[in-house]
Amino acid sequence: MDAKDRVAKELNQMDAEKKEDILENFNRFKMYLSDKVSKGESLGLNEEQLAKTTEFVANYLSKHEEPRNREQYLLQELWNAGDKEEQHALAHMLLKLVRQA
Fold this sequence. Notes:
Helix content: over 70%
Radius of gyration: 13 Å
Number of helices: 6
Number of strands: 0
Shape: globular
Distance between the termini: 28 Å
Mean pLDDT: 91
Structural class: mainly alpha
């Protein structure tokens, strides 16, 4: 099972209450993502693999979740405005952001 499959499985199995708890507060959301990035790194994922996984999660959130706060709203607007190349660059920027969390 590759990283995308693992992420998809986790997103699909997450109950609504846990998802709401993570998404309602932007700092909590960043900490959750930071933990997942750390786990990916410990599994040996390189920067490009992490960025592609970040793209997958961002696409999922953009299509299936409403922003819960202004920070998420801004990220969604940026994501939806960008083309594939810009989204990929934003994924790398998101990785940097959550590593600082």
